[in-house]
């Protein structure tokens, strides 16, 4: 009888301990947030990935951000038309059409006075449309790798009336395709495969990079983002440097940093759509003379991936993967995030929330 009571007491005690252990485990795992750090040079597509994450996991963009993008998109039409006209002159591409030439001169002198409340008058919309369709301006646009203009400018100029309208409200696509260079740090939290994650976006321009170090600790996955089409472009911060070479050097420095010795890393090559377009008119070999393959997407993209992969040391201590994506396509970003997290969790089983 006494023995039985003792056994019951022992079992009760064991159950109690087990409950406490489970509770403690729960408390620890609730706190467990895995970190993904996005890094890479300016304009490589880091924030584009973050925007896609917002759409996928956070119900899209808050109204203040939508308003911010509306103002920035509208302003960029003026600023970039001015850039196209002026850069055309420095590239030796002058507007031949007499009427358009006159319009362009007028626009350069008058455009500051157009800025009334950010609203476009009919005359300005007409001028922008006329100039965008001008043959010489189109030639400048075709030579855009020589100058610093935003990648997806044609998307906005081809639908000018919409973007110049005071009632225009940016869609998710309008926001994803538009670039506002990041200054500072942006973080987003999300759940994936029963685990909690935080993804961190940093500014990629040279002046921003010194801030990165503060986020190197406790990173579970590093995504190094590379715009695969930038083999023929010059760096915004220093026009004597080739953008892809800058990216290779940065990749080498960051991914071989002592903090990431054992951290899994993914090389994410964005802008595959733009590389395909660019190879139709540009010889890759002109920029990378050692390349002896065909001038097609498959071979060039493989070669570029190898240029980056070979800079990464001690691959045996961590997993290194490489992905080709068009970051403006939501499903492509979702796919690589899911694959990378799954592989990480398979290798490093962690407590489930
Ligand atoms: N067509 C196309 N455009 C892309 C792709 N990825 C990014 N972009 C565009 O490239 C531009 C720059 O992208 P961001 O994501 O702002 O670049 P970033 O790396 O955050 O730049 P910083 O903030 O300066 O470091 C944006 O206009 C994007 O829409 C892509 O795969 N295809
Ligand atoms: Mg950014």
UniProtKB/TrEMBL annotation:
**Where does the record locate the signal sequence feature?**
none
Q: State the superkingdom.
A: Eukaryota
Q: Which protein, by its recorded name, is this?
A: Guanine nucleotide-binding protein g(O) subunit alpha
Keyword flag Protease: no
**Gene3D superfamilies named among the record's database cross-references:** GI Alpha 1, domain 2-like (1.10.400.10), P-loop containing nucleotide triphosphate hydrolases (3.40.50.300)
User: Keywords assigned by UniProt?
Assistant: GTP-binding, Metal-binding, Nucleotide-binding, Transducer
- Tell me, what's a Pfam family for it? G-alpha
Q: Which InterPro entries match?
A: Gprotein_alpha_su (IPR001019), GproteinA_insert (IPR011025), P-loop_NTPase (IPR027417)
Q: Does the keyword Nucleotidyltransferase apply?
A: no
């Amino acid at each position: 009888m006494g023995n039985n009571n003792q056994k019951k007491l022992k079992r009760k005690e064991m159950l109690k301990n087990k409950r406490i252990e489970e509770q403690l485990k729960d408390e620890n795992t609730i706190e467990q947030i895995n970190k993904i750090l996005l890094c890479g040079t300016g304009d490589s597509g880091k924030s584009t990935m973050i925007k896609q994450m917002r759409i996928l996991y956070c119900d899209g963009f808050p109204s203040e951000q939508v308003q911010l993008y509306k103002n920035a998109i509208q302003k960029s039409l003026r600023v970039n038309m001015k850039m196209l006209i002026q850069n055309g002159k420095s590239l030796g591409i002058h507007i031949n059409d007499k009427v358009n030439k006159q319009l362009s001169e007028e626009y350069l002198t008058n455009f500051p006075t157009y800025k009334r409340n950010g609203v476009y008058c009919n005359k300005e919309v007409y001028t922008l449309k006329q100039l965008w369709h001008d043959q010489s301006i189109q030639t400048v646009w075709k030579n855009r790798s020589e100058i610093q203009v935003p990648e997806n400018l044609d998307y906005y100029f081809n639908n000018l009336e919409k973007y110049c309208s005071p009632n225009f409200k940016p869609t998710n696509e309008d926001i994803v395709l538009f670039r506002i260079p990041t200054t500072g740090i942006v973080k987003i939290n999300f759940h994936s495969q029963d685990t909690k994650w935080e993804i961190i976006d940093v500014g990629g321009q040279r002046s921003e990079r010194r801030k990165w170090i503060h986020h190197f600790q406790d990173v579970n996955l590093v995504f190094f983002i590379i715009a695969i089409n930038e083999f023929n472009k010059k760096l915004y911060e220093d026009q004597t440097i080739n953008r892809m070479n800058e990216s290779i050097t940065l990749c080498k420095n960051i991914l071989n940093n002592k903090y990431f010795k054992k951290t899994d890393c993914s090389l994410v090559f964005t802008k595959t759509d733009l590389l395909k377009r660019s190879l139709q008119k540009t010889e890759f070999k002109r920029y990378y003379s050692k390349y002896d393959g065909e001038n097609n997407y498959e071979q060039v993209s493989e070669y570029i991936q190898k240029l980056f992969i070979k800079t990464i040391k001690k691959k045996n201590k961590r997993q290194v993967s490489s992905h080709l994506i068009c970051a403006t396509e939501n499903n492509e970003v979702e796919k690589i995030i899911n694959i990378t997290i799954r592989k990480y969790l398979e290798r490093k089983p962690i407590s489930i929330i």
